[in-house]
Design a protein that fits this description.
The protein is an alpha+beta fold. Helix content is 51%, strand content 10%.
Length: 395
């Protein structure tokens, strides 16, 4: 089997070989190529020790060198080159305390999570596949390298990764692997919420979000939400997600995730707020009337209203006609430049002050009253008319 390698990757393998070291591309890039997908990056494993890698290549970066990884810079591109290694004891359920370097490729591959990620390739020796990863790719199976329970006790995040790969690749999970996840699900509590969030978001945005239901079947979901902080239905949501744009706030809104859950998952403030807005408005009805649509535009803005209407059509497809009417009205309001925010009014606070209206709470109430009247009747949005109405409101 011949894998077409980028010239830089080929050069790194060739140079390492010339200096007497074995070197292979490993992991995801091999898996992706075998599945006829374009690899996102190219990881290289070698028998060369870190200090030897640094001596061989002119431009290197030491990030990760403690665990054997040296970044080789070639033609302004970065390539991670890692020494074959054996992991030490995993004390925290996430990372090995230390690593031991080895010259044995198979020992390096034996420490990896899943068989589909434990395949190596070199143009001269071809595919190296000691754990039948190619067969599992052909059979569309996610299976741990060696004993699944041992793999998950080493690194609890691998349980989420198993389900994420199942979702992204539309693979089934090997029964022994699935059973081990169920038995060890409580170990997910050892993993940071940031890492769990990253894997969960990838599951939601995958081509096969149905894998989301595996989180419930394996009890992982219990350790993700900790408290019943939202009322999402994973079975139903997995169907909705197939139709949803891959924006986190929109995807999590389909799970009806509340603010407490989003904060618990360590999302940024913008995503937390936007998700809460969608969840709140999914419970509201917007009439296909110009005034009602302007009220929604005032609170949401054009982009968020469009996103909300997409979500509403996903959740209630039988009401799609109504929401398309609302969308058409919103587009017409935007196109015609009709007023739906305070800044669109033909007057501002200074004009009202000049007209004799004192600043403060009263002015705020008057401005809101003017906006409501203009949204109901756009022809009123003229300076002199609005001043007259404002003075009447003041009386």
């Amino acid at each position: 089997m011949n894998i077409q390698l980028p010239e830089n990757v080929k050069s790194i393998l060739t140079i390492l070989s010339k200096f007497g070291h074995s070197a292979y591309i490993v992991g995801g890039c091999v898996r992706d190529h075998l599945m006829e997908k374009k690899p996102k990056d190219w990881d290289i494993a070698t028998s060369a020790l870190p200090h030897e890698i640094k001596k061989i290549f002119r431009h290197t970066i030491d990030i990760g060198i403690k665990h054997g990884t040296v970044t080789v810079v070639m033609q302004r591109c970065n390539y991670e080159v890692t020494t074959f290694r054996i992991d030490g004891v995993y004390l925290d359920g996430r990372r090995p305390k230390d690593v031991t370097f080895t010259s044995d490729l198979e020992k390096d591959l034996s420490r990896r999570d899943f068989t589909i990620n434990a395949i190596a390739y070199n143009p001269n020796t071809g595919i190296v596949d000691p754990f039948n990863g190619l067969k599992d790719i052909q059979n569309k199976i996610i299976c741990c390298v060696g004993d699944a329970s041992f793999r998950f006790q080493e690194d609890a995040l691998r349980m989420m990764r198993a389900i994420r790969f199942s979702a992204q690749l539309s693979f089934n999970i090997d029964q022994n692997t699935l059973q081990a996840i169920s038995l060890l699900s409580e170990r997910l509590g050892m993993v940071s919420m940031e890492r769990i969030r990253e894997e969960l978001t990838k599951i939601l945005s995958s081509p096969n979000p149905k894998a989301l239901t595996l989180l419930e079947k394996t009890n992982l979901w219990t350790h993700i939400q900790r408290e019943k902080s939202f009322y999402g239905n994973l079975e139903q949501a997995s169907e909705w997600l197939k139709l949803c744009p891959k924006e986190p706030a929109m995807m999590y809104a389909l799970l009806f995730c509340d603010k407490a859950f989003m904060c618990h998952m360590k999302f940024d403030n913008h995503t937390v707020k936007e998700t809460a807005i969608y969840v709140n408005w999914l419970k509201k009805f917007i009439a296909n009337k110009r005034y009602s649509v302007k009220l929604a535009l005032n609170e949401l803005g054009h982009r968020q209203l469009n996103n909300l209407l997409i979500l509403k059509k996903i959740i209630n497809p039988e009401e799609s006609g109504h929401w398309e009417d609302v969308q058409a009205i919103a587009e017409d309001i935007i196109e015609s430049g009709e007023c739906f925010t305070l800044k669109d009014l033909a007057i501002d606070g200074q004009i009202l002050i000049n007209a004799g209206i004192p600043p403060g709470e009263t002015m705020g109430q008057i401005m809101t009253g003017l906006l409501n009247k203009v949204m109901d009747d756009p022809l009123l949005n003229q300076k002199e008319i609005l001043i007259k109405i404002a003075l009447n409101l003041l009386d």
